[in-house]
Amino acid sequence: MAFVTVRAGASSALKRVKFCSPACLSSAVTTSHYATAPATKKSGQKNIVLVEGVRTPFLLSGTKYNNLMPHDLQRAAFLSLLRKTGIPKESIEYIVSGSVIAEPTTCNVAREAALCAGFSDRTPCHTVTMACISSNQAITTVMGLISSGAIDVGMAGGVEFLSDVPIRLNRKLRKLLLSANKAKTPMQKLGLLAKFRPSMLVPELPSVSEFTTKEVMGHSGDRLAAAFGVSRREQDEYALRSHTLADRASKQGLLSDIVPFSVPGDSAPVSADNGIRVSTLDQMAKLKPAFIKPHGTVTAANSSFLTDGASAALIMSEEKALAMGFKPKAYLRSFVYVAQDPKDQLLLGPAYATPAVLAKEGLNMSDIDVFEYHEAFAGQILANMKAMDSDYFAKTYMGKPAKVGCPPMEKLNLWGGSLSLGHPFGATGIRLVTTVANRLIHENKQWGLTAACAAGGHGHAMIVERYPSK
């Protein structure tokens, strides 16, 4: 048991709180086989289904995908989804992609990838951005279009390409160059030249910190782990678990959402993620803190890494899917988006979103068979577990009468997670939803839940229900 300090919001005072390690991190649990009839749709609402989800292999930035562009990866995911399902391009009525760091020449990457993939120029496409839950937003946007009756068939995508990010000219130099366009006389041009300084040649690198708080996410993760009493050892153990499970799932062929990608100029296609590293706790303990030095606990080994990759999902109304001869994988049920103070609760989105989505669907934590939570940092996910398992946190910061509890480890991220598989910001959400659907089928279970944190203090959660086998 540890005494820790947690702050609920920017205006609230710091309080000394007592948290216990959640029982779900070590408790055994038994579950029954999937035998319950699927939930019926609510009156007046359409059942919306996930037909299939795919992704490119997720690769460490600066490796095999180094010479590509974002639309290349998204295009590959779109085409892979078409090949895997056999659906004609003409049947796709709308495409939405999620992405975070935009390539300026293809800022609406959904549209450019679709055109390069051979979709009709009459197929509308747009791109959304919501940090690490961007492709979750793409999924729910397509769901909204289907629910409203605007479409019956949509494609959601997500892509991130961090091997080549936009690096801007110095702002002073940008202003000078823009002024040069208006200069007409030689004297005006010479006057601008006189304003030039060598310091203007220093470029502006993309910021890795939150705009409003100026804090790097890893620094926030370190503070969060400390606030909830998550030790360095616990973080390393969780990270090792993630890599070990991902390695096992990969070798057993369970990561069936991966579709090989042929990199131009390479003889053999890329067919697997390349960030999985099964190490030892002793080796991990040798790494120095990455953000808060020298006493921080977040390191390169217990953090997700910069990743390139893309994903895509085929989403339809149930009626349309059946009419076209498809066997859906899952129903996409209730979802929520939440937002908290980005300074002190930047990464606590899952702790808020999980009870909200369970209440919306009328379920309890014990009803869920499969959990897939985004792993930004090991400390982040363990802190969320402790928050969900704390009556004090529930009552004080969420206004709930009691804790919701947290996912048993026996049900959580059993095929690895973002720490091991990789985290292309814009593509992870579709991986989470597809993995839940695939695990429900593999484990013969009914209910799944995905949850993720995101920059800006955002969070998201969704309930997924396995489509009945009959």
From TrEMBL:
Indicate the segments forming the Thiolase N-terminal domain, all copies: 48-319
- Residue ranges of coiled coil: none
Question: Gene Ontology terms, cellular component aspect?
Answer: mitochondrion
Q: Where in the cell is it found?
A: Mitochondrion
**Residue ranges occupied by any Thiolase C-terminal domain in the UniProt entry:** 327-466
Query: Which GO terms are recorded in the biological process aspect for this UniProt protein?
Result: fatty acid beta-oxidation
User: Per its record, what are the GO molecular function terms?
Assistant: acetyl-CoA C-acyltransferase activity
Q: What class of enzyme is it?
A: transferase
Q: What are the entry keywords?
A: Acyltransferase, Cytoplasm, Fatty acid metabolism, Lipid metabolism, Mitochondrion, Transferase
Q: Which NCBIfam families match?
A: AcCoA-C-Actrans
* Protein name, UniProt field: acetyl-CoA C-acyltransferase
- What is the protein's species of origin? Amblyomma americanum (Lone star tick)
